[in-house]
Amino acid sequence: MVKGMTGKGQETRILRTEHLFKRYGSGANEIIAVNDASFSVERGEFVAVVGSSGSGKSTLMHMLGGVDRPTSGRVLIEGEDIYRMNNDKLAVFRRRQVGLIYQFYNLIPVLTVEENIVLPCELDGRAPEKGMVQELAGMLGLQRRLGALPNELSGGQQQRVAIGRALITRPAILLADEPTGNLDTRSGNEIMELLKESNRRYKQTVIMITHNLELAKQADRVLTIEDGRIFGGQKGVEEA
Question: Which of 85, 150, 159, 221 has the fewest CB atoms below 10 angstroms from its CB?
Answer without folding.
Answer: 85
